[in-house]
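Just curious. Invent one:
>
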Amino acid sequence: MPRPASACVATVLLLQLLLLVTVPQIAGDIPVDESEHEQLLSVVPCIRRLCEKYFRSERAMKGSLAIINIKPDASEFQRHILRSFNENPRHELGVMVKDASRPHWNASHVTEKAKNYLMLIADSSALAAPIRQLRRLPTWNPLAQVVVLFTAELTPLVFEIEVRNVLQELFDNSVLNVNVMVQRYNTSVLEVWTWFPYESGGCADNIDRLRLVDECEYVLQEAEPERNVRAAWVFRERHYFSDYGPKIPKYYNYCPLKVSTSIWEPFVVGNASHIEKGLEVLMLDAITARMRLVPVFSVIESALTTARITADNQTGLYADVLQRRTDLMIGGLHENPISRKLLSATIPYYQDDLTWCVPTARHAPKWLNVFIIFNVWTWLIAIGIIFAAAGLLYRFNYVERLYRVNYTWMLLQSLAFSLSVYAHYWPRRVSIRLFLIGYMFYGLHWNAAYHSFLISVLTRPRYEPQISTIQQAIQAGFGFVGAENTLGHFDKPDAVSRHIAGAYRVCRNLDECLGRLRSERTIAIAMSRAHSSNSRAIGEAELYCFPKAENIYTYSVSMLAKKDFHLLPKINELIRRISESGLLGKWQKESEKIRIDEDQEEGGGGAGGGGGGERSGEGQTILRLDHIEGAFYLGAAGLILALIAFIGELFYYRAKRRYRWRDNLLDRFLL
């Protein structure tokens, strides 16, 4: 009668079991068929017993999973192994059976990672196929416990070669928790061999020594009537595991952690020959110190970091990691579709933006300083009041007949009153004096307002309108520059993206292109916001990056590692603790301080900001000629007009005498 549905079956169904073999349940240990004399079948009880030891098995309701690869034409030995797992009375493992000879159907909805693998192979050459299939499954877990069982007896001549080949194949796929079961030749003893990557100061770089960790034999113990002991099947075992310690230890013998990086402030600060500091460098220093590793840095050429990202393992950006020359990559990197297929990434620890950076708006022309204090309408009203008051004064003088003057003279007196300066006019009538008193108070107020605002305008810089959106940049005829790997963000059908893609120019060295912003006023550079504000190529006050609403792309910064890097879980754990402790903010300030100190050394510490004038030692503003050049322009314009008027009067006088013109109204203004 079939075994009833259980929690184990429910778990396996949830994880899309392809083939589950169910057989009648038999209580107790699994006896060896006494009629079966094959030595292979005699080790099956030991296989299950040792797998129970190595496999990490939680209760089935928690979803523990063991994957066994068995072909449809499995031998009696393989079916016997499967039957032994299925008849486990505790049902602690969900068993998933895989056939590496057939493609696996889509299992993207499966989220539970396998914790255990049992691979049955005749020799090491048969291992590649199941590994390829398992890696494509969403359940793939390189940190799982892997047991490889040879289904054929190995002679002493080929035994060590085959075991090393198996361990090397799995090591190349970043699987280190491996135990290889081999039946000792011409016996029923099952041996378990493995290697310890960090044994005796090793650094998990090659398989040095093979270690025997367990022996097991399932034998029939003869009856002893005198001791009232009946015959029974028992396990004879020897264990050596405790002599070697864990395969992935807590500390790593100060082994080198090889890191590829580009110089990319504030994440990495330095040059091609020396790495100084930086946010990610300080983070790696803390991580490697905790894990007892030694970081070894190699600098990537800047041209590689800006080139189009490809899967090329010879010359591409990820070539060093793909060829296992380095373990990690840093430098303000983020995941992309290619890196997700080829590499593994740490948890993110920083958010950055890809945005447009342009030159800062230039200072507005200073000759307008004396005029921009008030708007146009205020100036027109003030000038109108001067002319109207001059007309009144001219009329008052005409009534009183005090001075023999013209309207121009009265216009000068009106201007003097409005500027609260001395005016040579003494009227007799009280009504006129009262008018002048009111006009005087108007002049006091106007003069005070003008000069107070004048000081503010002269000592504070004014700027032209700042280009701050992509639409403004397009309208202003800007060119667009950036890395080649950024161009893909503009492969869109909208008009803005098409315009940018058409005007885009590839920049091989982004820092050099940033420096162009000092001299070129109509270029926009696609740049990391964090790098733009920390780059040594240009001062932070010399460029303006668009607000976040105008970002090209927002991404999370992380480190990229070898696919399924075995140290990645420990690195992630330490990154999480560093982030929670607030050290990232402290290190970011330290990275920024390096640049600030260098800027002060280069500038001598005495350079002023982009203010309205030079700063003296006491912080006072010293005005230069260009701050009041508008007044000189105005005076020069007046002199030129006066000269033109004088020349006109001269020609008129000579023409009148030559042609004997009669006196007319124009003579009152020209002669």
Remarks:
- The chain has five domains: 34-243, 250-349+558-594, 353-362+463-556, 366-459, 632-668.
- Residues 1-37, 59-63, 603-612 have pLDDT under 50 and may be disordered.
- The longest strand covers residues 211-221.
- Residues 629-659 form the longest helix (31 residues).
